[in-house]
Amino acid sequence: MRILAAMSGGVDSAVAAARAVDAGHDVVGVHLALSRAGGTLRTGSRGCCTIEDSLDARRAADLLGIPFYVWDFSERFRDDVIDDFIAEYQAGRTPNPCMRCNEKIKFAALLERAVELGFDAVCTGHYATLIDGESGLELHRASDAAKDQSYVLGVLTAEQLAHTYFPLGATPSKAVVRAEAAARGLTVAQKPDSHDICFIPDGDTRGWLAEKVGTATGDIVDRTGAVVGSHEGAHAFTVGQRRGLALGVPAADGKPRFVLEVRPVSNTVVVGPKEALAISEISGARYSWTGAPPADDEWDCHVQIRAHAEPVPATARRDAASGALVVTPEVALDGVAPGQTAVLYVGTRVLGQFTIDRTVSAVPAGV
């Protein structure tokens, strides 16, 4: 096959490209330039897709003896990921930019260009597995549960799965990948993993958002509507947050309070006890299937609401009236926010995903 290897400059994508070469494929490496800040350099283990990363990717490609290119996707990244991130926070939701990047950039914009240029598949260093199932190609969890990245790939469609290649899916651990990189002479063998949001490398999401959308004083209220504090911008808060709350009125029971809801229209933040973060139901109208959709209108599954969260047994159904997917977990979910992505699994298989629009608290407001 003709393989376009997406090389981020990290150890995983470098080893994935190397394995594609070893498998006898015709491999070309490409690094995506996602920022126009040409002087940007990685700081510690934060961020990704910087000048330093592109140089690391080029060195790896040179060692593997494959052609290498840098493609400027910065405008598409700004429109589909950064602007979406800002808009979601302004709407009182908690977005996942890594999901949007996989959906809109790596497996949409990049894959579309790759197919146009005659490539059969895009190769990445994601830890996930593709299996030929009874109803077609299926996406499954990786062998190494600690490194499994199937959650962030839950946005892929059946058509996109047909043009993807994940050489690391069956690898038992990240340590094996690093050892292989060292044995191959790849200089990124011990390069630290990237963390945080790549376009906010210092990790100060609140400060970054304040620069983009400004500040506006608003009320912090409890579940009864009583004002208990103030803030400088509702966009700086997310469900489950405790840090940064300036509460002038202590709770009657003396216990700490957490953000339960963000209301951007009124610029209000609602707080309450930790128990009120328990969610008994979630739903969303924006969903997609990773392969064949379920045959029934209601089915048993597991739901995962964060990249490293434990999957929870649940029942999912299509709501005939709204067209949304409604998921009822067997055990209440903790601190779920609208805007998060819920990925559904049947066993190790990724069934699909949806953006959470609505949550139902397991604790009534009067309790």
Automatic annotation (TrEMBL):
GO terms for cellular component: cytoplasm. Transmembrane segments: none annotated. Catalyzes the 2-thiolation of uridine at the wobble position (U34) of tRNA, leading to the formation of s(2)U34. Its main location: cytoplasm. This is tRNA-specific 2-thiouridylase MnmA. One of its GO terms (biological process) is tRNA wobble position uridine thiolation. The lineage of its organism: Bacteria, Bacillati, Actinomycetota, Actinomycetes, Micrococcales. It comes from Microbacterium rhizomatis. The active site is at C101, C198. Disulfide bonds join C101-C198. The record marks H126, Q340 as: Interaction with tRNA. Residues 147-149 are annotated as: Interaction with tRNA. The gene is mnmA. SUPFAM superfamilies: Adenine nucleotide alpha hydrolases-like (SSF52402).
